[in-house]
Specification:
By secondary structure, the chain is an alpha+beta fold. The protein folds into four domains: 192 residues, no CATH class; 139 residues, no CATH class; 103 residues; 99 residues, Chitinase A, domain 3 (Roll), CATH 3.10.50. It contains 22 helices and 19 strands. The strands form six sheets. It has a four-stranded antiparallel β-sheet. The longest helix has 34 residues.
Length: 609
């Protein structure tokens, strides 16, 4: 919950660069621990080296523990994404180890000891026991390292730097020679700071129906042949239908939760310890285990505004009234203030349905499950939706990605669809914080190597759009010709049933409403003289005729003042990109097999048999 509050979002993906990301679910739920599959069974290979169930299991367990410490409850989508990230990380570890051996990169005991003394990892620097006034204290750290009780930490540091120092040496080899000139820096600065304002007429494909153009099979095949390199291995795709039964929260539910918060506040005012009440009542499990403590925060930290404003308005020891945020009601207490930093605790109560409302929703959910859950008959799904007067939503699920429908995240459905479901099958009832869901697979296409057949629909859409843009070019040419003959852009647009739109100030890298980003029309706005009207400019999204109204050149003095900082930031970015591309190249050259799906399907078939 602490991580959730810091980003003011309900779900946060775990992003780890040099750590495994995984969840201990695959081995337990897929049957990999039964008599058919042992801990030494291979779930994949990298250049002939096996990845065993045991290695994979330990990888995913490590991140499960981390997620639990952060108080997160992982959805099936989280779990599937985590499994894939864990597998990728193991692959990278094997490839890196082989590359380090090939280059003869090693690390000495002296290097490890020096790094451990001088450069402690971030997680150690953040330990409260090694901080003074909220800042890492090197003297405390050195004293601790020398103490008899630091044996486990010293072992951790040795293992950490035995792995990290060789990686750093490899990175230094890879980025040797990375350079950026002053001319490059100035060009980048100009792209970001030269600005223009324009008026334009947009002739877009949306003005023409798809039926107005025809795409032949031969054109699709020719496009695929000419653009084969643009298409990588395709993920699986599934069309899914979803019934959503919401848990409706009423004004009475909100009032009841506030009343409960007021009761708890009165209990604390009456002498109960805040920490004890937080452990007993707060739904923020991560902070609740610490007596409600959220640690030290500053005004710049990205907590939700309602919480932050209330917390910084409190005096030390003062108890807030119930504070409403998107997460529920908070009771807040400040333990300490130092400068602009406060040490703060809270108790969080989530606004939920009353028992009677929840019982009614649960009863309807049971009915929905009886009518259609886990059925192989697709008609039962539609009949259930009709009988219960629930809307059916349809979306495209992509293997490895969470499902969204109309911009809204739909948890667990994508992971379920690619976890062994068959066409026409309905899911079990999926329970979320704010609704019950039931899903059905309407179509299912396995992923694999791209070919004309599985890309036919996508290529057809591309070609239809291209042909529509080409067909609209004469209309744009008539507008440009009218301007050339003496009409204003506005007059020429009106005579061709078009309208002139205006932009605000934009740069070469801006997203410009109605014009797009990084396309030929944006480039033309920085090439035309001010006041001139362009010839038709064709982009992949339409044809444009534009007039530049104003242009301001970048300030070279301002650029000179920040040039060194810009160079440092850009070099850092370029070095990271070089290392990332090196890893991409290693993976592309490697022979990698991933047998997890085969094993999972075998276990499903075995269970069904």
């Amino acid at each position: 919950m602490l991580q959730t509050m810091r980003s003011a979002a309900k779900y946060i993906w775990i992003i780890v660069i040099v750590a495994f990301v995984g969840v201990f679910l695959f081995a337990e739920t897929s049957g990999l621990t039964d008599r058919n599959v042992t801990r030494g069974t291979s779930i994949g290979r990298v250049n002939g080296e096996a990845i065993t169930v045991d290695t994979y299991d330990r990888a995913v367990r490590s991140i499960t523990d981390r997620a639990q410490r952060e108080g997160r409850t992982l959805t099936l989508d989280d779990q599937r994404r985590a499994e894939n990230a864990a597998f990728d990380q193991i692959v990278d570890e094997i490839l890196l180890r082989a590359e380090l051996d090939r280059r003869g990169i090693q690390v000495s005991t002296e290097e490890i000891q020096q790094a451990a003394r001088s450069y402690p990892p971030p997680e150690i620097m953040q330990s409260p026991e090694l901080q003074t006034d909220g800042q890492f204290d090197p003297e405390k750290y050195q004293r601790y390292l020398s103490s008899p009780g630091a044996g486990d930490v010293r072992l951790y540091l040795e293992n950490y730097y035995r792995s990290e120092i060789p990686r750093q040496k490899l990175s230094e080899q890879l980025v040797t020679g990375v350079h950026v000139s002053g001319a490059q820096l100035w060009s980048i600065w100009r792209d970001q700071h030269d600005s223009a304002e324009a008026s334009f007429v947009a002739i877009t494909p949306e003005l023409m129906p798809d039926s107005a153009v025809k795409v032949t099979d031969q054109e699709i095949r020719t496009y695929f042949k000419d653009h084969r390199a643009d298409f990588r291995e395709l993920p699986g795709r599934a069309t899914v239908s979803v019934i959503r039964l919401p848990r409706v929260v009423t004004a009475a539910d909100t009032a009841a939760t506030r009343g409960r918060a007021e009761t708890l506040r009165a209990e604390i005012v009456g002498g109960a310890k805040f920490e004890d009440v937080a452990k007993r009542e707060s739904v923020d499990s991560a902070s609740a285990s610490e007596g409600g403590s959220l640690g030290r925060i500053t005004p710049a930290e990205p907590f939700v505004e309602e919480f932050k404003n209330a917390a910084f308005a409190l005096s030390v020891g003062q108890l807030s009234q119930p504070v409403l945020s998107q997460f529920g009601y908070h009771i807040i207490k400040v333990d300490e203030k130092k400068g602009d930093t406060i040490a703060v605790r809270h108790i969080l109560l989530r606004i939920q349905q009353s028992d009677s409302s929840a019982a009614a929703t649960d009863s309807r959910a049971d009915q929905l499950a009886r009518l259609a859950a886990e059925s192989d008959d697709p008609a039962k799904f539609d009949a259930a939706a009709k009988a219960m007067q629930l809307r059916v939503l349809t979306g495209l699920a992509v293997e490895g990605d969470p499902l969204t429908i109309a911009g809204q995240y739909v948890p667990d459905v994508s992971a379920w669809a690619f976890g062994g479901a068959k066409k026409g099958e309905s899911s079990e009832l999926i329970e979320t914080d704010d609704a019950y869901l039931l899903a059905r697979v309407d179509s299912l296409v396995e992923g694999g190597e791209p070919n004309v057949d599985n890309l036919r629909e996508e290529i057809s859409r591309i070609l239809v759009r291209q042909k529509k843009v080409d067909a609209l070019m004469p209309r744009a040419e008539r507008i440009a010709s009218a301007v050339a003959s003496g009409k204003t852009l506005e007059e020429a647009a009106r005579s061709n049933d078009a309208r002139v739109q205006q932009t605000g100030a934009f740069t070469r890298t801006s997203v410009v409403p109605g014009m797009g980003r990084l396309n030929e029309a944006i480039g033309a706005a920085f090439g035309l003289p001010v006041g001139a009207v362009s010839a038709p400019v064709k982009t992949r999204n339409g044809v444009y005729v534009l007039r530049v109204e104003r242009r301001i050149q970048a300030d070279r003095t301002a650029w000179e003042a920040q040039k060194d900082a810009q160079r440092t930031a850009l070099l850092d970015q370029m070095r990271r990109q070089r290392v990332q591309q090196f890893m991409v190249n290693l993976r592309e050259a490697a022979k990698i097999s991933d047998d997890r799906d085969k094993l999972r399907q075998a276990q499903i078939q075995g269970a069904a048999g």
